[in-house]
Task: inverse folding
């Protein structure tokens, strides 16, 4: 059994030389700005903040945990990979295997663990250094790299999702669960039944926890089982004293409580994953926290969104690309070479697939499914299909293909009233009464019916380039 111990993983990251210690930073904007500027580096280290202004030594915040190929491969228990290309290759096919194996690894309840070192019955969440991440945020966010645990009203389905958590006062937080997210669906059912909604919020654990709670694990499946399939052993969980909801036994900080029916609180605004503050303050369910469990000298995981690249855009690009690849294969699209969900679109809004064309209509089929499959539909604005000679993760190559292999009047399909979001920055300009969005499928493949006459690429052949590289080593 695995208690999802963050400290064991941090030890590994320290050995890899990818952990930087930062002392004396202020929770008030400094943690956010330092983390944001750090993540723009080529290979950003993880940052462990300690001696945070106004807080006791030992009360720490970890950021940039998932933003390098080495760290992400270690979190996913893959052989360690130094480059993003090797990581994507190592990950290929794995999500489908994990999904298939998940049922064999249900979480296992244990009586105790490090998470229970301290229990607050007189709740005071101000004890923890929740950052004010961005200048225009509506408040301090205690939960970003977190996992929110909920239970279905009528079944024993436990869901674990990453939803942002705003600290409101000593014992209240607001939970922003977008419509359609599984935690939101659970909440709506309790609300309709007029029942208090039990919630547990995990604010720090092995980052595998929030990595998986932040991606689209299938409806009805528990993320702990999926994590168990990655680990090859069940997650060891403790059941909360008042809700019975499970949290990893080595969790750093856990909030437990209820959302009373119709307890809606002012929440936000908050800088978002696509790089904007898409709205003003809104309403979100308010959690009354009745218990806090925490380890000695707890470490909160922060994963603040912002204009990409941001804290989690790299990990989302890698994970969502792998999931989209699997979804296309599962839908029967043949000859998929690679998929890339670009960080510039927050790994949602600008996705590219490369295929080896085999039949008329193949490229449109790939583009429409990329745009509409379960993993991809939410906020997928542009879906681009390119030939197999184009690297879908290289924007320069992708846009070259768009510029030279597409005829806009026939090669751009528009889907009206697709799945959008109230968080879409364009929402202000849309004419709809609900969060729809139009979607473009750009077919940037050589036209199938003229593929044999299509002009050859004016570029030195691979063989010639290899020869030149070998001969002119000092130049290349
Ligand atoms: C760091 C981070 C923060 C996120 N914040 C939110 C959020 O505030 N609200 C939301 O609905 N989804 C948020 N997401 C996206 C969801 O976690 C993601 O869609 C996930 O699939 C939700 O779980 P579910 O599929 O079980 O509903 C966030 C993801 C990450 C990685």
Result:
């Amino acid at each position: 059994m695995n208690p999802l111990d963050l400290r064991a993983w941090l030890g590994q990251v320290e050995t890899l030389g990818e952990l930087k210690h930062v002392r004396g930073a202020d929770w008030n904007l400094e943690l956010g700005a330092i983390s944001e500027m750090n993540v723009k580096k080529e290979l950003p280290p993880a940052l462990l903040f300690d001696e945070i202004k106004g807080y006791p030594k030992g009360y720490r915040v970890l950021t940039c945990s998932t933003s390098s190929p080495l760290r992400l491969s270690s979190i996913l228990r893959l052989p360690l990979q130094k480059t993003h290309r090797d990581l994507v290759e190592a990950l290929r096919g794995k999500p489908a295997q994990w999904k298939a194996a998940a049922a064999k690894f249900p979480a296992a309840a244990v009586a105790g663990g490090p998470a229970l070192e301290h229990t607050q019955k007189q709740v005071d969440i101000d004890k923890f250094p929740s950052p004010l991440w961005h200048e225009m945020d509506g408040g301090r966010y205690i939960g970003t790299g977190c996992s929110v645990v909920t239970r279905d009203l009528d079944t024993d389905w436990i869901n674990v999702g990453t939803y942002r958590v705003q600290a409101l006062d000593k014992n209240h937080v607001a939970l922003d669960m977008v419509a359609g997210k599984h935690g939101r669906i659970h909440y709506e059912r309790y609300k309709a039944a007029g029942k208090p909604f039990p919630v547990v919020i995990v604010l720090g654990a092995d980052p595998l926890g929030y990595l998986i709670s932040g991606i689209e694990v299938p409806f009805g499946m528990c993320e702990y089982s999926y994590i168990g399939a990655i680990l090859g052993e069940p997650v060891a969980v403790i059941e909360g004293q008042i809700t019975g909801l499970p949290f990893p036994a080595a969790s750093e900080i856990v909030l437990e409580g209820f959302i009373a029916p119709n307890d809606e609180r002012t929440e936000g605004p908050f800088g978002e994953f696509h790089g904007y503050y898409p709205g003003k303050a809104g309403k979100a369910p308010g959690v009354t926290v009745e218990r806090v469990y925490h380890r000695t000298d707890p470490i909160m995981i922060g994963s603040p969104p912002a204009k990409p690249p941001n804290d989690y855009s790299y990990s989302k690009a890698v994970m969502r690309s792998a999931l989209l690849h699997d979804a296309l294969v599962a839908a029967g699209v043949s000859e998929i070479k690679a998929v890339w969900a670009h960080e510039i679109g927050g790994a949602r809004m600008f996705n590219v697939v490369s295929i080896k064309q085999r039949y008329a209509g193949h490229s449109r089929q790939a583009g429409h499914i990329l745009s509409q499959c379960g993993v991809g539909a939410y906020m997928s604005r542009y879906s681009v299909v390119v030939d197999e000679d184009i690297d879908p993760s290289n924007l320069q190559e992708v846009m070259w293909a768009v510029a030279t292999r597409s005829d806009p009047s026939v090669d751009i399909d528009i889907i009206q009233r697709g799945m959008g979001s109230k968080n879409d920055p364009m929402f202000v300009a849309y004419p709809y009464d609900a969060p729809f969005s139009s979607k473009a499928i750009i077919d940037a493949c050589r036209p199938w019916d003229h593929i044999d006459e299509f002009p050859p690429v004016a570029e030195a052949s691979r063989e010639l380039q290899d020869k030149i590289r070998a001969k002119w080593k000092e130049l290349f």
About this structure: The pocket of flavin mononucleotide is lined by residues 144-145, 159, 161-164, 176-178, 181-183, 214-216, 303, 312 (CB under 6 Å).
